[in-house]
């Protein structure tokens, strides 16, 4: 995945970034998207359950899943590195491994007792714990000392692919054009705007009076200035007022995600000096442009209260709108696209003092997501229909009701999913409705002209409404909505990407039924002979997912074509049979020339939680891995996103072991089918994805040669048994509540920390954590490494290292260049474990 500016802000007054975009951080090196992003789905109008608010938990979204790559395809490691007793034994001289102290501690639940001598590490203020982390950092530094030159080589290669400066195409919103850029030599983005049209006449004097002082381009927010001042920057939510006069945003400068509300007056370019509220999550403006709704967190980081503030007022004067006292639920707010309503229950944005109106009663597992257009609410829901038909296995359906009598029982069914179609998302404009679909496992987008006559007496199919299906490129294209914040617009912007196609910004004109390519990600230092250019002449042959064959869908376009690397790299989808016969999608990516079947190393990545999509979009850093023969494999295990909501449910709670078995099956498939050398398979887990990797290592320790565990969720049982930890109660719906014996017994079966076999010959591991991480405690990584050292084979565990960032949070820190250095460290670790050296790489380059 390239470096995505939009992950830091989404400047929408309506459909705005909910907590999913709060999960983001500076990542790799390229600009992937327009300056604003839409939420994955309109925000629920009622207090949402954990399933609806899962983005608050330990998951990482598309923008946050670090596209991890390895680097070198070396010759097979010398047998001198291994003994006949332990195939992973390292012989280089190393300093003595840190030995964590043991403090007797016994835990008991449901009649089961177990010892946890590293429980003391959960006190991160304990001087002994800080000392231990420092010892581990020193050991990791010594272990990686001989990779320093290689890290420099890798870093130089990655940076060489990054354009010196990057800018997004501007998007118009009202009289302004908003865009982002990364100035030359800078780490972070800058949000800017300029007037779309120069006004003339007497109106110009009034309208442009405050613009002149800023010149034609006004800087709204500069991440670089904040980072230089505080050393860390994480902007969560960011919204411009409907009149474009104020910018409200939330800021974290420590990594603990206690975001502070700040409001900037864009007329004077100054921060309003009112008391700044801590623990703010989501924001929504009322139509008057000076009333702002926001949510705050409790001590466990659960958004539970909605407040309302007026520009210029003191925070003590902020009015409480609603409080959710049930710890199983959290609150999110947003505005409808037309800006007329704020949804938490329902608030009239034109008259915010009118109070709340409830849309529906709370029902377990039922969700409602509202948008508004032409005196009607459009509702995406999985609620049982009037015919008592439960369609939860097929996802959502679309219904609507008048805004004069807003009650869920007044819903009229509009569009029902077909047997082979899932309705996953929607967006709405003044004249168009946009639907995101999944048909037979393939993504589709279509637009429908509205208002239109709907037959409320029968369940309608999408094709009954004369939809226009957006032509999409092939090569397993992923689709990410742009900001699309202008309700009056007729053009829908998306970012298209695939493992072999750099990110493509495409505008679909829903009125004219044409599409045009706006921008494609620039990738430097790649031979033009490696690029396949899809010109206008043969574009039609490169399109897919057009269920209704209409020649005008592809002929009527203003596209200049796009470029991909399918001529150099192969991306294929496989199906792997899991333990219970279910077919698991596995995507493999490799070089046509460098890859050697049966001899190449490979990296298997999985996530499998919260129903989230595993990111398989373009990543320029991945070229370093591919060009040296590595294979990259993505396992879409159960628990993540799939062809239907049942894919998530079949891999969570009392079905979580399915995710782990799926991941193991994919690893075994890569080896048994001869894709990867049996001693050259590595694994990557991030956050909740580390549960997969850790459990798989315990069950099949010989499967992986090495593993990367980033901010790992490994001490699952002990964490979920402590409801006082941040996010724990919200995670009960995903993993189960171990206070219940059935859940306790099940979690105990797979919890990685609790199931390390004694004497295990474990793979080499790079475990990374952050001291200020509030989502996954730093002690989880530290306890895992300490127990591995104490329990596993001493030779193997000497190549397990723990690296702790003592200043960052769950998303660590650093901009595009810092990320390259971090990634180079990860690559160099795998290279070292594989027996590769800098000299081998130099010889390979000379051949």
TrEMBL record:
Signal peptide from the UniProt entry: 1-18
SUPFAM superfamilies: alpha/beta-Hydrolases (SSF53474), Peptidase/esterase 'gauge' domain (SSF50993)
Domain Peptidase S9 prolyl oligopeptidase catalytic: 623-835
Enzyme class: hydrolase
The protein's name in its UniProt record: Prolyl endopeptidase
Family designation: Belongs to the peptidase S9A family.
One example GO MF annotation: serine-type endopeptidase activity
Natural source organism: Sesamum radiatum (Black benniseed)
């Amino acid at each position: 995945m390239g470096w995505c500016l939009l992950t830091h802000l989404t400047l929408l007054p309506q459909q705005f970034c909910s907590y999913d975009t709060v999960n983001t951080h500076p990542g790799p090196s390229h600009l992937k998207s327009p300056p604003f992003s839409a939420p994955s789905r309109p925000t629920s109008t009622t207090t949402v359950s954990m399933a609806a608010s899962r983005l608050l938990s330990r998951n990482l979204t598309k923008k946050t899943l670090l596209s991890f790559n390895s680097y070198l395809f070396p010759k097979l490691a010398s047998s001198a590195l291994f003994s006949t007793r332990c195939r992973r034994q390292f012989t280089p001289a190393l300093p003595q491994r840190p030995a964590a102290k043991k403090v007797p501690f016994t835990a008991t639940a449901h009649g089961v007792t177990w010892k946890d001598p590293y429980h003391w590490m959960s006190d991160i203020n304990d001087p002994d714990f800080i000392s231990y982390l420092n010892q581990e950092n020193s050991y990791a530094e010594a272990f990686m000392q001989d990779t320093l030159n290689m890290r420099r080589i890798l870093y130089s290669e990655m940076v060489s692919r990054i354009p010196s400066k990057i800018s997004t195409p501007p998007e118009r919103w009202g009289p302004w054009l908003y865009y982002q850029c990364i100035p030359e030599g800078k780490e972070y983005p800058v949000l800017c705007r300029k007037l779309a049209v120069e006004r003339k006449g007497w109106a110009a004097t009034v309208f442009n009076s405050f613009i002149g002082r800023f010149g034609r381009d006004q800087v709204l927010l500069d991440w670089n200035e904040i980072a230089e001042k505080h050393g860390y920057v994480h902007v969560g939510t960011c919204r411009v007022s409907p009149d474009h006069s104020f910018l409200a945003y939330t800021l974290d400068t420590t990594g603990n995600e206690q975001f502070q509300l700040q409001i900037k007056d864009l007329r004077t370019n100054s921060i309003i000096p009112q008391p700044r509220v801590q623990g703010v999550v989501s924001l929504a403006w009322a139509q008057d442009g000076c009333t702002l709704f926001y949510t705050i967190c409790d001590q466990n980081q659960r958004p539970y209260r909605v407040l309302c503030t007026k520009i210029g007022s003191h925070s003590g004067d902020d009015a409480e709108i609603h409080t959710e006292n049930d710890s199983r639920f959290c609150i999110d707010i947003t505005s409808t696209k037309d800006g007329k309503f704020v949804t938490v229950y329902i608030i009239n944005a034109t008259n915010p003092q009118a109070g709340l109106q409830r849309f529906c009663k709370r029902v377990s597992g039922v969700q409602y997501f509202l948008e508004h257009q032409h005196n009607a609410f459009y509702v995406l829901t999985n609620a049982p229909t009037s015919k008592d038909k439960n369609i939860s296995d097929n996802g959502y359906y679309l219904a609507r009701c008048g805004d004069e009598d807003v009650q869920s029982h007044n819903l009229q069914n509009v569009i029902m999913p077909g047997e082979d179609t899932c309705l996953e998302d929607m967006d709405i404009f003044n004249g168009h409705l946009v639907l995101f679909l999944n048909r037979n496992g393939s993504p589709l987008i279509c637009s429908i002209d509205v208002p239109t006559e709907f037959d409320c007496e029968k369940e309608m199919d999408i094709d009954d409404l004369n939809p226009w299906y957006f032509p999409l490129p092939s090569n397993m294209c992923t689709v990410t909505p742009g900001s699309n914040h202008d309700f009056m617009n007729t053009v829908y912007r998306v970012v298209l990407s695939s493992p072999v196609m750099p990110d493509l910004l495409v505008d679909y004109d829903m009125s004219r039924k044409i599409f045009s390519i706006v921008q494609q990600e620039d990738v430097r230092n790649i031979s033009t002979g490696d690029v396949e250019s899809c010109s206008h002449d043969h574009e039609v042959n490169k399109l897919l997912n057009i269920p209704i064959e209409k020649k005008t869908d592809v002929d009527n376009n203003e596209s200049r074509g796009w470029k991909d690397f399918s001529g150099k790299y192969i991306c294929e989808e496989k199906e792997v049979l899991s333990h219970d016969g279910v077919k698991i999608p596995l995507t493999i990516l490799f070089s046509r020339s460098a890859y050697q079947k049966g001899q190449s190393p490979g990296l298997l990545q999985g996530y499998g939680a919260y129903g989230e999509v595993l990111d398989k979009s373009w990543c320029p850093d991945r070229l370093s891995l591919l060009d040296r023969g590595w294979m990259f494999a993505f396992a879409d295990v159960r628990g993540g996103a799939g062809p239907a909501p049942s894919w998530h449910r079949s891999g969570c709670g009392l079905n979580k072991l399915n995710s782990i078995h799926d991941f193991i099956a994919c690893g075994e498939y890569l080896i048994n089918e001869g894709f990867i050398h049996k001693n050259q398979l590595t694994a990557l887990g991030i956050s909740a994805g580390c549960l997969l990797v850790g459990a798989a290592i315990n069950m099949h320790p010989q499967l992986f040669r090495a593993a990367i565990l980033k901010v790992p969720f490994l001490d699952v049982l002990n964490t979920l048994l402590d409801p006082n930890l941040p996010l724990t109660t919200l995670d009960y719906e995903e993993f189960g509540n171990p206070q219940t014996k059935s859940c306790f017994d099940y979690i105990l079966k797979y919890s990685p920390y609790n199931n390390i076999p004694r004497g295990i010959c474990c793979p080499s591991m790079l475990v990374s954590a952050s001291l200020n991480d509030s989502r996954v405690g730093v002690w989880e990584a530290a306890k895992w490494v300490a127990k591995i050292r104490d329990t596993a084979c001493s030779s193997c565990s000497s190549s397990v290292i723990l690296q702790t960032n003592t200043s960052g949070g769950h998303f660590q820190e650093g901009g595009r260049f810092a990320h390259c250095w971090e990634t180079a460290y990860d690559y160099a670790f795998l290279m070292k474990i594989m027996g590769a050296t800098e000299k081998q790489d130099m010889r390979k380059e000379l051949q």
